[in-house]
């Protein structure tokens, strides 16, 4: 069984779709959709590109809405309270939140990449590095 391999413009469509899904479902409390989007990228995007896409989906999927929310709501005071509970400054609490989103998306992508390799029975073929200085 082979899975489709998204490259080029379709790769960016998948990343934007994952980001939009995370942004839309985040206010509903569906934080785990970040993992699902990472899983989808891992299954559909070959190699290291899945990890980069998941990193973008996680960071932008939580970061842009947080930035948008900070324009009209007292996000700083909430960050200060969360930071106080964690024993860190408020700004570090925001960074920890974004790191959690990236880890969730990357964990999903990691499982997706492993699933892709298990389904296909072989690792994704990556082009070999070009060797111009060997043996010449």
Tell me the strand percentage band: under 5%
The number of helices is 5
> What is the element string, with H for helices and E for strands?
HHHHH
Secondary structure tally: strands: 0
**Rg:** 18 Å
Specify the biggest β-sheet: none
Shape: elongated
Low-confidence stretches: none
Structural classification: mainly alpha
Helix content bin: 55-70%
Taken together, the total number of domains comes to 1
Query: Span between N and C termini?
Result: 41 Å
Average per-residue pLDDT, rounded, comes to: 82
Characteristic terms for this protein:
single chain; 136 residues; mainly alpha; 5 helices; 70% helix; 0% strand; elongated
Question: Would you mind describing this structure in some detail?
Answer:
The protein has 136 residues and is mostly helical. It has one domain. The chain has helices at 9-25, 33-44, 48-70, 75-86, 90-120. Helix 1 (9-25) crosses helix 3 (48-70) and helix 3 packs antiparallel against helix 5 (90-120).
Task: Give the arrangement of secondary structure elements.
Blueprint: H1 9-25, H2 33-44, H3 48-70, H4 75-86, H5 90-120
Helix pairs in contact: 1-2, 1-3, 2-3, 2-5, 3-5, 4-5
Short description:
The chain is mainly α. The protein has five helices and no strands.
């Amino acid at each position: 069984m082979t899975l489709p391999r998204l490259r080029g413009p379709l790769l960016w469509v998948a990343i934007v779709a994952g980001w939009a899904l995370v942004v839309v479902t985040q206010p509903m409390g569906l934080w785990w959709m970040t993992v699902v989007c990472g899983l989808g990228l891992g299954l559909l995007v070959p190699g290291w590109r899945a990890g980069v896409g998941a990193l973008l989906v996680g960071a932008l999927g939580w970061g842009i809405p947080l930035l948008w929310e900070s324009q009209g709501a007292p996000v700083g005071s909430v960050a200060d309270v969360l930071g106080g509970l964690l024993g860190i400054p408020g700004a570090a609490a925001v960074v920890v939140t974004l790191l959690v989103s990236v880890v969730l998306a990357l964990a999903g992508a990691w499982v997706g990449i492993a699933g892709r390799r298990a389904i296909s029975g072989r690792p994704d073929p990556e082009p070999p590095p070009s060797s111009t200085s060997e043996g010449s």
